[in-house]
Design brief:
- This protein has about 475 residues and is mainly alpha-helical.
- Helix 8 runs antiparallel to helix 9 and helix 18 runs antiparallel to helix 19.
- The two termini are about 40 Å apart.
């Protein structure tokens, strides 16, 4: 009985660094707010359904929305229903809460990978103070929620192995499914691979729990794909995929060569039109935007409330079919051009995340207000991290070495078994996220890829911290052994 207070005290001491971290994080946000940094809340993104539809007909709008995954539309609809007037403030508070969860999750994961508790808290706080983290936390875009959900999914998987808890497995896979329903990069196949990895690496007695916990989240995500297959004939969370692939294939051809291919009938007329062109651009190709039996969210050329193009229009379904064929033909006819595009995309992927927007440096950039407050800090950060002889890649040139270390450490920890199994699975999942997002962001699309890297930025920081902690531990052990 006397041991119970001692155990409780030890547990309290273990959590003390997280409390200090949370207070420090919130204090930093208060300072940023006082300095003039504000949350940029906008509803005119191309992945967004009409705000009026989301507020008044949320269920119907989500059902007929096929262009992009529905996650952010769900959040937006709930915010607007809660208070149209204060939706921006509510969104800011949601993102702030996600930030609290994110820094605590990063600190937990760093500790799980062998970094001492207080350095783990310092690492998480340092990450939250980087310009990319600050900028994306203050922008109503899916990068911040998806990054936080990925961190929490990793926390859930590690806790599940350590505790053997089915509830933690359910939390991990539910979060993973939420990522797949929010960001099209994270395909159903991505989630299936995560489940397979987890089932293969955990102790035998936990494999049934893994499978059972994954069933409902996998079924829910599959239903989203099946809904779009039934509705528009596309088994995907987003029907915009062909347009994204157009960017790394057709759009990368020299203009004269592309125009010649259109004239000889190899490519459709849509090959000369930007993948970001609004549906009005295609009025010349279709008799009427109306389609009998379909709601206005499918046939309306423009959104009503925010006066933005409606990228959920049925015109684009026909255009995407043509773009899919165009991309396949270019891939076959110009394979070397595709390889060069992927290499260029990889360099862009490693460039500064704060400069992802085409209008960077102008008032039209969504980060213009952020840069007005923290622009000098952003410039110094990018000069250190992305500068030098390997600019704009900079320090990210070390990532291949970290990946090699990670693969080696995953294998050695997994072979040891026991308590190292949880660390091995965590490190394997980190490596998988890094490899998957890098491949998808450079091989399946082009432009804005440095923004996509932010989704795995915590994984890269954790991988580097784990490598340093492991090296220091090995050095200390050898020093003590030699003495």
């Amino acid at each position: 009985m006397a041991q119970r207070p001692q155990i409780a005290l030890m547990a309290q001491m273990r959590q003390q660094h997280l409390l200090v971290l949370t207070v420090a994080y919130l204090a930093s946000r208060a300072v940023l707010h006082y300095a003039g940094l504000r949350f940029a809340f906008s509803l005119d993104w191309m992945w967004m359904a009409d705000a009026g539809d989301l507020e008044d007909r949320l269920a119907e709008t989500l059902y007929y929305f096929h262009a992009f995954p529905p996650g952010m539309n769900v959040l937006t609809g709930l915010l607007l229903k809660a208070s149209e007037t204060h939706a921006g403030t509510l969104a800011w508070l949601v993102f702030l809460a996600l930030g609290v969860a994110q820094v605590n999750g990063i600190a937990y994961l760093a500790t799980a990978l062998g970094v001492p508790r207080w350095p783990s808290a310092a690492l998480a706080l340092a990450f939250s103070l980087t310009p990319p983290a600050i900028y994306f936390e203050h922008l109503y875009l899916y990068e911040w929620p998806v990054t936080t959900l990925l961190v929490f999914a990793l926390v859930g998987a590690h806790r599940a192995v350590v505790t053997g808890s089915t509830a933690w497995w359910c939390a991990a896979f539910a979060t993973t499914a939420a990522v797949g329903a929010t960001r099209s990069t994270f395909h159903l196949a991505w989630m299936i691979l995560i489940v397979v990895m987890a089932a293969a690496m955990v102790p035998a007695q936990q494999r049934r729990r893994v499978r059972n916990a994954a069933l409902i989240p996998l079924a829910v995500l599959t239903l989203l794909y099946a809904k779009n297959e039934w509705l528009v004939g596309e088994f995907a969370a987003s029907t915009f995929g062909p347009a994204s692939f157009h960017l790394v294939t057709v759009d990368r051809l020299p203009k004269a060569e592309r125009d010649a291919a259109i004239r000889r009938g190899m490519l459709s007329p849509f090959a000369a039109i930007s993948a970001y062109a609004p549906p009005r651009r295609y009025l010349l190709f279709f008799a009427s935007p109306d389609l009998r039996g379909w709601p206005a969210s499918i046939t309306r050329l423009d959104q009503v409330r925010v006066k933005a193009p409606n990228f959920n229009h049925w015109f684009l379904l026909k255009v995407h079919d043509a773009r899919r064929r165009d991309a396949a033909r270019v891939l076959v006819a110009y394979p070397l051009n595709y390889i060069r595009s992927v290499v260029a995309g990889l360099l862009a992927f490693s460039s500064p995340s704060t400069m992802w927007h085409p209008a960077t440096g102008t008032s039209r950039s969504p980060h213009a207000q952020h840069r007005a407050v923290l622009g000098a800090y952003e410039d110094r950060y990018n000069a250190v991290v992305h500068g030098g002889p390997l600019a704009p890649v900079g320090l990210y040139a070390l990532v291949p070495l970290l990946l090699l270390w990670g693969v080696w450490r995953t294998v050695t920890w997994w072979r040891r078994g026991g308590r190292d199994t949880a660390r091995a699975l965590l490190l394997a999942l980190l490596l998988f996220q890094i490899a998957y997002v890098t491949a998808a962001s450079t091989m399946l699309t082009f432009l804005e890829s440095s923004r996509y890297r932010f989704q795995i930025e915590p994984c890269l920081w954790l991988l580097a911290a784990a490598a340093v902690a492991d090296a220091l531990s090995s050095w200390t052990e050898r020093r003590w052994t030699s003495t």
